[in-house]
Structures are given as structure tokens and as C-alpha cells.
Design brief:
Number of strands: 3
Order of helices and strands: HHEEE
Number of domains: 1
Oligomer: single chain
Strand order of the largest sheet: 1-2-3
């Protein structure tokens, strides 16, 4: 996915006040969900590589006694 495509998805979601205040999480291939904590723009120094810049999304797994609430629906 390119950053421009991500922006198009976000623009569609962010017209809703519910989406504007929604928690942002990443779902890993194993089904585990982590909270997004940072977005970085990285530069690749590979010569001849088609991807010279990368948006890197960093996440953190919340520890302790907090549990992810059950998802009741997809909007």
C-alpha cells in the first residue's frame, strides 16, 4: 500500500465523528492487535530500488490487566 492510498481510506473514514475519535490499532497476521504509537517517514538508500521512502507504523502491545474489548461489529 502506498501513502496516497492510505490517505484516501483515512479521508473516507474521517468524515464520521466516531472515526475521528477512534483508537488506532494494527492487526498482525497472527490476529494479535497492537496500538499505533508513532508514524515515521524513512528514507531507503538502496540504489535502483523503486521504494525510496517508507512510512513506518510503530506499535506497542499493551501489557498488564487491560484486555481488548470484544468487537461487536464492522462499520
Amino acid at each position: 500500500m502506498k501513502a496516497k492510498e492510505l490517505r484516501q481510506y483515512l479521508d473516507k473514514f474521517l468524515v464520521s465523528p466516531a472515526a475521528q475519535n477512534a483508537r488506532v490499532q494494527l492487526e498482525l497476521p497472527n490476529g494479535e492487535k497492537i496500538d499505533l504509537i508513532e508514524i515515521q517517514l524513512l528514507e531507503s538508500r538502496m540504489i535502483g530500488d523503486r521504494d525510496t521512502h517508507i512510512l513506518n507504523l510503530k506499535g506497542v502491545k499493551l501489557g498488564g490487566t487491560w484486555k481488548m474489548p470484544k468487537i461487536i461489529g464492522k462499520l
